[in-house]
Prior knowledge:
The complex is a heterodimer. By secondary structure, chain A is mainly α. Helices cover 69% and strands 3% of the residues of chain A.
Amino acid sequence: MLKDITLGQYFPGESVLHKLDPRTKLILTFVYVVALFAAVGPVTYSLMFVFLVASVLISEINLKTILRSVRPLIFIIAFTFILNIFFTRGEPLVQLWIITISREGLVTAAKMMARLVMLIVGTFLLTYTTSPIALTDGLERLLNPLKKIRMPVHELAMMMSIALRFIPTLIEETDKIISAQKARGADFDSGNLVRRAKALLPILVPLFISAFRRAEELAVAMESRCYHGGEGRTRMKQLKLMRRDAMAFIIGAILTAVIFTLRSMGF
Amino acid sequence: MGRTMNTENAVIKTEDLVYSYKGMDEEEVAPVVLGGVSLQIEKGTFVAVLGHNGSGKTTLAKHFNAILLPMGGHVYINGMDTLDEEKLLDIRKTVGMVFQNPDNQIVANVVEEDVAFAPENLGLPPEEIRRRVDEALKTVGMYEFREHAPHLLSGGQKQRIAIAGVLAMEPECVVFDEPTAMLDPVGRESVIEIIRQLRRTGKVTVVLITHHMDETIEADRLIVMSGGNVLMDGPPREVFKNVDTLRKAGLDVPETVGLLYELNECGFNLRLDALSVEECAQEIYAALKGE
């Protein structure tokens, strides 16, 4: 039931996108998001779309997986779409009682939807092609200068990677608890919202207790493997920028330049 | 059991080790979990620690790498006192520990990254970490899985990864705290096979905490814990002869010894130190033939 949540899941692979330095990918994703929000007209949108499709193809990630990542957010996407249709003023196309659908509304709604979907797919592509460890590692290295102003960068990165590591474990556990409660006659599917929310309590309590126990055991296991914070810690996989990273940066720079130029020309 | 031991050769040594868990209530008398345990574990041996739930065996194990610190007495690891905070990393590097639940020991999302965790903490150079990770993964037979995500592996496989993670520290001694308690029979067998293999190479001292009798048969030495004290200490063959004492401590004996014991109750006169099925069968065969 909960197994199909793919949030933060990594699919190992050998593609160029997989091999890129995580720092490169993080920066490029950021650039991509900025460029996506800079897109205004059909030309810039199509360009971003082509870029995204090319990235997806290069990543060799199954198309189904990519589409599945959008599914949990369909509600939000639909919501923004509808809001934009009804609440954008402009040249009316259809008029029913107090509801007006304008041409501008349709266009804005379509744009917003395209932007959201592309945003989700683009950022998910980052987590699909980058192992969470590489990702936190990259983040840690990128934020390293902040250590000077006493930001606990290493600790944050470690917490993030542990959180990611335990997501599938806790999901599995939630499934088990749900089954156990159902076997004892718990009913999660009927009643109004309040009743259903109350029915979640017997799931959350054991889940939290077990999470705390896990945390304690993990802390002991980490300590007995000589963990003592980020000081004096080395990494097996050193991050090294290669030629392909330089190439990626150049492509990213060109994309941004083109998008902003086209934007200023109103495409 | 008066064993002569060479102090020089001891990797773990406890002296009158006392420990009790403090109760929430100040007035409450905290139950004594370890009541003055003194023992030595020599380098290169395979020692099994057997005990019923609450016998203090896990608490004892947690003193071996300074997860718990003694409230009375001392624990020395290669001569280093665990109370000496400056030696903490050296102690943990010397004695590695494998825990019961494989899920709660794995830190990383990729098998090899997890195995690299300990050597990374030790600040080793990347090439050395790589070498150790590969070696450790080959030792536990999980090298092909080095790029997998741990949560997709079976319990036994996960536990083997956890063992590799400890071996990558290249410790002198590995303490296994009920490593098979949460595993299915196949996973259990694979973990036991690794322990056997470690023992064969003779490079690491193995301490196996367990409540499965069968896992202790092959040990060089068996320590039976009961009520926070050492009840018996000796080679498994000797220890398991004391069927009555063991049963009083809430422990059973291996099925083979149990069978021989029951037969003796019925009037046979069989040796009780036949631990393996083969030996046991031989013993019964000889007795039947003799009649």
